[in-house]
Amino acid sequence: MGSRIKIFAFLSIIIFFLSVFYFAPEAAADKKTAKELPERYRKWLEEEVVYIITAKEREIFLQLNTDRERDIFIDAFWKQRDPYPNTPENEFKKEHYRRLNYANRIFGRGTPTPGWRTEKGRIYIILGEPNQIEKYENETEIIPTEIWFYQGKADLGLPNSFNIVFIQREGFGDWELYSPIRDGPKTFLRFYNGDPANISQAYNQLAKIQPNVAQVSISLIPQDQITLTAPSIASDILISHVFEAPKKIEDEYAEKLLKYKDIIEVEYTANYVGNDSLAQVIQDESGTFFVHYLLEPKRLSMELIEGTYYTTLEINGQVTDTKGRRIFQFNKKLPVKFNQNQFQQFKSKLFSYQDAFPLIEGTYTFHLLIKNAISKEFTSFEKTIFVPSSSEFRMSPLLLAPSLKESPYQSQSKAFKIGKHQLYPSPRNDFSQNDNLNVFFELYNLPEDIEKNGKIKLAIYTNNQEIWSESKDIDQSPQKSQFLESIHLKKFQPANYLLKVSVFDKNNKELLSQQAHFFISAKLNLPRPFICTELMAPPEDPVYDYIIGGEFFNKGQLQKAKLFLEKAYNKKPKNLKFALGLAKALFESKKYKRVVNILLPFVQDEKIEYRCYDLLGKSYQALSQYSLAADCYKRYLAHFGTNLKILNALGECYYQSGNKTQALDAWKKSLELDSNQKEIEEKVRLLEKKK
């Protein structure tokens, strides 16, 4: 049996391949009311977890449409609270239902109110068994009172020790939660004839009867500095914190579950893992813009089998434009294998997956989804990406990194490689005093006068006060469009800071600026991640022309698409991926003969590429060469199986070549697969009528 070990590092070889991967757009879910839910889900939401569910979790639960989705959500809800996820039992869930059942059994006695709805029941469900209970129920001078004393709840963000007080205000009925601010000492006294506003007078009378009750009447917190002129406001703050204590949980998983419930497999949906992430657009020396990104999951699981640690990560990405069109998509698999020595070396580190891809100008949303095949966990991010135009003078966002080294891979590309240097950014912008603040930014389409006479100013602020600055002439920079500055942080105290970088003209007028927050930790050595990345193809590789051409094609810019796809194909005409990319663009431009010329070599060799038959068939059909088109379609169907569009096109080719019987057979088979095809149904009706 394998055992799962939580680690933060791995070493792997990345297998890269482009694929048709589709993120379904997030559907606008209709929010229901709790009353509209099936009974068992309404009870779960409004009774069983009402005191521990966050507002976000509740809102998302009400947007789910099926019982399957609700069951998955409930499973994820409890997993998110499991203190020991590697054990078969969920200790939090077990204890919660024990408290709930106890509250219903004990606190609902003698009252029509269910135990979970009583105020005693609520406190018990949230805090559990008190360390001590003092009861004053048969006193002649004070109303029935119970003081519950709690200790050791600091993990909930509560004081080390405190009291919760319940009273029966009329001497009978439901127990109510006592508030020093709302009620005051006079509330406990059955007979009080003093000034209602005189707290000191009521306290002194109560202290003579029951000193312990008098103490809690002013403050619920033993360590609180009390005054007899006014009850402690800290007590009412305490009560509000008690109510919120079980809701202090990272509920981001609920949003991700809602977003991806229709995309990822069922076994993944309840296992969202949070992450830190970063994405930066960087222009390379050729002028191509690349999206460099990283993702650091909070947890990475591997499975131990016979002394070796395994997992496989599936990395799926998609870029969509403002119209919702898919511009680029990819799918990568990362097999991971560790021996014992490697595991010991890397297990204490964070894990950072890093990569980059080219992207054409525009505004986009970048979605990244990573699935762990072993643990069935997933993590994701969504980023807005802006790639500037080739004419506008702009400044890039600031990229901050605690580490910078000379790259050993001078002739190849890599994520966050800037010229000869390799940057190691942190998505948290966290630094120690031993680090350098390495700042990278770009100026796009720099005007000549600014290049010759402009200045760059870097300034650091804290509490809105500038505490450090440095200015440099732009023409002194080795590269006029890219800037890499380094600031040693030893002279700065641990705190939160703001870095501002500005561009000034010769008259000292600020033209552009960017800001970034960072913080310096009190720790002298912060944990840095083990980085999983791969060397990318060199800048001259035709794969970039192919990707860029595909992006223009998906954006509907055919002329630009053909330009880049033609470049990729001309460099490697025997590459099927490049040939198909160009052929698709040519087909859309109605260059059918050229499509045939490009694809024919791929179906004439011994190793036939069956993917070509679809586009070949369509091109022959467009050229009215129906027999050749039908032959392509038949070969495609024989290899890939039934495809309605191809089957209907085959029927059309038979019909146009005069073979009505075979056309009728093809269309009838199509209707057997999908009867809701009015146009095909009409063609069949007309053919049968002519028989």
Task: List the keywords.
691 residues; disordered N terminus; seven-stranded antiparallel β-sheet; alpha+beta; Serine Threonine Protein Phosphatase 5, Tetratricopeptide repeat; five-stranded mixed β-sheet; 21 helices; Immunoglobulin-like
Structural write-up:
The protein is α+β, with helices and mostly antiparallel strands. Among the domains are: 130-245, no CATH class; 392-538, Immunoglobulin-like (Sandwich); 590-690, Serine Threonine Protein Phosphatase 5, Tetratricopeptide repeat (Alpha Horseshoe). 33% of the residues lie in helices and 27% in strands. It contains 21 helices and 27 strands. The strands form six sheets. Strands 1, 2, 9, 10, 11, 13 and 14 form a seven-stranded antiparallel β-sheet that branches. A five-stranded mixed β-sheet has the order 20-26-25-22-23. The protein has a four-stranded antiparallel β-sheet with strand order 3-4-5-6, covered by helices on one side. A hairpin with a 2-residue loop joins strand 22 and strand 23. The longest helix is centred in the first third of the chain and has 16 residues, at 91-106. 33% of the residues are buried. Residues 1-28 have low confidence and may be disordered.
